Target: NAD(P)H-dependent oxidoreductase
Amino acid sequence: MKFLIFLGSVRESSPPKPVRLGLRVSKACMALMQLYYPQHEVELIDPLDYGLGPVFKPEFSYSRSHTPKDLKNLADKIAQADGYIMVSPEYNHSMSPALANLLNHFGSSLFSYKPSAIVTYSAGQWGGARAAVGMRTFLSELGCLPVSAMIHLPRAQEVFDEEGAVIEPSEQK
Model:
């Protein structure tokens, strides 16, 4: 089976130096998937790796021969995947604009009837729980089958290092 982990943020935060907190969480998800399910293929989808920009024209509006290369490549990956892990911070009680923008480039036919896990995180105490509630509806409208249990990670900067490994309590400041 093949799973895609969608990194839902492009932002660098400052705990205490600029880091991509979402990348830490996504790497942790990837490491856990590889540890517990080594027989499955797992790929990280980082919005910074695709030059998609705002959604002026979604992927399904192009003829196959005129679809921009990055859009076509990502559409093919989404279609070939068996499930998704959506990783997002909370922005104003909602999922991140970067994740919404990335997903809005594609129609529901690519996501239909495939499971999607929701992982949210924050630098504060709530772990993105409010964003996760809205994500469930958003992903359902995309055709996904959101997993009922969601994962919320508060104070993620204190939990994961730059490589997504858990910071041991003795190493915390």
User: Anything to note?
Assistant: The helical segments are 21-36, 69-80, 97-103, 108-111, 129-141, 156-159.
